[in-house]
Design a protein that fits this description.
Distance between the termini: 62 Å
Strand content: 25-35%
Strand order of the largest sheet: 16-17-15-14-18-19-21-20
Bound molecules: S-adenosyl-L-homocysteine
Radius of gyration: 24 Å
Length: 425
């Protein structure tokens, strides 16, 4: 047994046997219900964690309000001593996260630099979009001023970015009982830039858009999907054209569908940025169907503003057919309770898409719901294939891009599924 450190400057949080066994199984979170005593730990403090007998288990960041009260930053397996200098640890972890990306990330100037628990920096997300860095702070401990200062100085020193912005989710701040704060620039003045993923260019606006602005977690899946795509393609839930623009050089025609007009406006601008790469003999931009704004002479990509469920229903009823279909809906299951309804939603979409694929067609189907496991998703897809009377061959079962690492003992770090399959009848 490890000796309990005699004295630590940080408060000590004592866990129940259930909390202890959760940590021993490799997880890094402990829920409030598994805490025996907090020793008046201040909100956001760095605390020593012990089992119910006082045996040292590691060091954690403490939240006084979240259900996840404890997020470990070090365990007794890493160090038998409590973390004394959190800013120094922070600097080291940031450097490690950057070094990991230098080894792993290719063909892009936009990627996730720090992915919270998966980079041993719980509550912190940093994305790089070329010369703009975008950060999200999700916990009391990371919101503290000294932590912010270390973060900004390390990021500046490594990247010399034109600017650093913070994207704020008001709901998260409320849950962490942090004072309200607006999204905005923390440093510099630049709020938009152009990023290049796999040779495809995208406009990036740091203060608008979903997530921190783009779906970086799909970057490697765009590239994989393009490898199999052919013929006429339909990109359903296309947002700003991530899949559509990657498919365009491989396909005779691409239709992108989304219910968000602002997203489609950016998709259209993105298409114009890449027009010369789509096809040497077919220089074009793109056009919106039934839109009052600019429709160019191009026929290669079109964007349709519609509810995807209605559109798929209408198109399949009308007998429309495609060679490649991408489905990348928003998360249907926000909690475990939504699982059945989510699976029904996924099945409806996939069933319709399968019916509309020509023989040898390619289905690229995604789910970003953490609560839908990979096996749930594959089972749903198998059911949809059976109902559609299509034989499906799995080409690739994929997840999120490697700059969003999956920490094996922390299942919550793995959320994205992307299945590429071919229809064989
Ligand atoms: N494939 C995109 C990301 C899709 S995110 C990419 O790689 O960048 C999900 C998208 O679904 C969002 O753009 C959202 O506007 C859109 N959406 C949500 N509900 C929809 C619906 N019912 N019909 C069509 N689009 C919808």
């Amino acid at each position: 047994m490890l000796p309990t450190p005699k004295r630590s400057e940080s408060p000590t949080v004592k866990l129940s046997p259930r909390g202890t066994s959760r940590l021993k199984s490799g997880h890094v979170w402990v829920y409030r219900s598994d805490i025996v005593s907090t020793n008046d730990a201040p909100p956001g403090s760095v605390v020593s964690v012990t089992d119910h007998r006082g045996q040292f288990l590691g060091t954690a960041l403490y939240s006084s309000s979240s259900q996840i009260a404890i997020r470990m930053i070090s365990t007794e397996k890493i160090s038998r001593e409590p973390v004394k200098d959190f800013p120094a640890l922070l600097r080291q972890r940031i450097a490690n996260a950057i070094a990991y990306r230098e080894r792993i990330v290719r063909n892009t100037d936009a990627y996730r630099l720090i992915f919270s628990e998966a980079d041993f920096l719980p509550g912190l997300i940093v994305d790089r979009y070329s010369d703009i860095l975008s950060l999200q702070i999700l916990t009391q401990a990371i919101d503290a001023d000294p932590v912010r200062q270390v973060l900004l100085s390390e990021l500046t020193q490594h990247f010399h970015p034109a600017s650093i912005v913070e994207r704020v989710d008001p709901r998260v701040r409320e849950l962490e009982t942090l004072p309200p704060r607006e999204s905005g620039l923390l440093q510099g003045e630049k709020t938009s830039t152009i990023i290049t993923m796999n040779g495809v260019q995208f406009h990036f606006d740091a203060l608008t858009g979903q997530k921190t602005g783009a779906f970086l977690d799909q970057r490697e899946n765009y590239f994989a999907a393009a490898h199999y795509a052919h013929g006429e393609a339909l990109d359903v839930f296309c947002y700003q054209g991530g899949f559509a623009l990657h498919l365009a050089p491989r396909c005779s025609h691409v239709t992108g569908v989304d219910s968000s007009r602002p997203a489609l406006e950016v998709a259209d601008q993105n298409a114009a940025l890449n027009a010369s790469d789509f096809h040497a003999s077919d220089l074009h931009a793109s056009k919106f169907q039934a839109s009052e704004f600019h429709a160019s002479e191009s026929h290669k990509i079109e964007w349709i503003e519609a509810n995807a469920f209605d559109l798929l229903k209408d198109y399949s009823a009308a007998g429309k057919q495609y060679d490649t279909i991408v489905l990348d809906p928003p998360a249907f299951a926000k909690s475990k309770r939504d699982l059945d309804a989510a699976l029904r939603g996924y099945k409806e979409l996939n069933l319709r898409a399968l019916k509309m694929l020509r023989p040898s067609g390619i289905l690229v189907t995604c789910s970003c719901s953490y609560h839908v496991s990979q096996s749930d998703f594959l089972e749903m897809l198998a059911g949809a294939a059976l109902d559609a009377r299509r034989a499906l061959r799995l080409l690739e079962v994929r997840g999120q891009s490697k700059d969003h690492p999956v920490l094996l003992n922390v299942p919550e770090t793995s959320y994205l599924k992307c299945v590429i399959a071919s229809v064989n009848n």
